[in-house]
Specification:
mainly alpha; elongated
Length: about 150
């Protein structure tokens, strides 16, 4: 009786799933901390859930229907696009807000998909990119502040 339960409950891929969840939690935490430290709307729990959810959908897609692994994965991308689109706000004039946050949510889903397909190295590189990428100074901001300063001096 117990053996039957264990055979139903455990499928043999538990280590891969556990590694994926650990990387999802750590990566989501790190990316979320970076975004929260900049006062952005998506934070730690959002990134953990996006990465872990994408990982689960992708893992299921790859293992439930191995002949059509891209079907569920393509809907993950579409769903995340909808989520990211809802985060983008148009402010006064032509100013757009939360574009980088929406892009980082999209990237978080890609990280989760890499974990679901067991591409752990790719997922770790994606996490590093998602943490460091938004920290790269914007050329536009630098030049616009230089121009404003020059106009004040004139």
């Amino acid at each position: 009786m117990v053996e039957e339960f264990l055979d139903i409950f455990f499928k043999g891929d538990e280590l891969a799933i556990a590694i994926g969840f650990v990387i999802s939690i750590v990566g989501g935490f790190l990316i979320g901390v970076e975004r929260e430290s900049r006062g952005k709307s998506a934070g730690i729990s959002t990134y953990i859930l996006v990465i872990a959810g994408s990982m689960m959908f992708t893992y299921l897609s790859a293992n439930v229907d191995p002949y059509s692994t891209s079907r569920i994965a393509s809907y993950v991308v579409a769903g995340i696009g909808f989520l990211g689109g809802g985060m983008i706000i148009r402010g006064e004039g032509k100013r757009i807000f939360n574009l980088t946050t929406a892009a980082s949510i999209w990237c978080a889903a890609a990280i989760g998909m890499a974990l679901g397909y067991e591409y752990y190295f790719l997922a770790v590189l994606g996490i590093i990119l998602s943490i460091l990428g938004p920290r790269i100074p914007s050329i536009t901001k630098k030049y616009s502040s230089d121009i404003k300063q020059k106009n004040k001096d004139d």
